[in-house]
Here is the input.
Amino acid sequence: MMRWRFIPLTLLGIALTAGAAGVRSGYEYLLPETRALQDDDFGNPGLAMVDEGRALFQRAGANGKACADCHGTGGERLDVHAIARYPVFDQERKRPITLRERIRLCRSEKQAGPALSYAGRKALALETFVRHLARGQPVAVEIGGPMAAHYEAGRKLFHTRWGQVDIACHQCHDNHAGQHFRGQTLTQGQTNGLPAYRLATGEVAGAHERFRQCMHKLRAEPFAIGSPEFIDLEVYANARGNGLPIETPGVRY
Amino acid sequence: MACALFLLLALASSRFAGADEAGYASWRARGFEIPEPLGGRKGDPARGRAIASDGARGNCLACHRLPLEGLEAQGDLGPPLAGIGARQTVGMLRLHVVDQSRFNPDTVMPGFHRRPERLHRVGKPWRGRPFLTAQQIEDVVAWLATLK
Here is the structure.
């Protein structure tokens, strides 16, 4: 009898996993009115962060140069296909570079500072502005070659049980997408809408901020924003959503 | 003074009887049951019901529909718990709550009383403690057993 109990549960697990095999944006799980809010080019509350980023983009750095001087007033000289490929492997630095890190590097190397804190609001605003330029582009993270090890490390983090609650990311976001946790619809935990405006907190959160929020829920000690662990997790999480259109700024709960 | 100390020790040991200071009691499953109450404690169904429907403690309602009036925002990751006491032995109920991964290695249900050293990167306020103490587990199990 015990054995019998075990088998149906396992089968259930498999069925749910298979059901979630298609990659789906968090957008698909939203209520119609929340989708409408995201789609509204005037009403989307995340656009305030895009505007904040645009203003910073046009402001001169320590050497008198603004991002806009090199990349166009509205960023039009940036390649949107390239933006959709982040994180990318940097051959010189021998590590994956996230979009936010790329922006920080431009700030310190092409503008001579002042340095942007990875966890600061300015870096988040600039990232939101730059990623918004690529809205509609399919996410296309390269995971071959030197990225393979980082993708694998991120995959492992996504499958590790964290904290006192002792649950792994994949258990909520792969196995139970579409079901309800505390009355909230679980999604696949995709990153194509990030940075996104959260209705629950009234704040814009990027990938690392979101990872921290989920780890907190698990009563775990989150990794730091910008840490090598979260960068690997971002490599995995973004690549897991390869093909999904960038929605920045998404609107989420 | 010695008397007070003795009293204190006696109090402490009754509070933690059969469990360590963080409320953890080691346990052993036999098949798919834990036949013995954790730390030899006796559960109280009324306390168990409160724990199950409290988001900060059991939080069972986050994933299960509970047969209780007036609860909002219940989840459906797991099956409804109505009637569970009629379908399962107390020993099985105990193992479900203590460590559901014994039934399903890939379960999303937290292990509420797994050995704390086996958890990863627990946040400071919760370090070294199981999610529910031995007493709380017995309370919840006692409540589940009444759901017939």
In short: Chain B has one domain: 43-146.
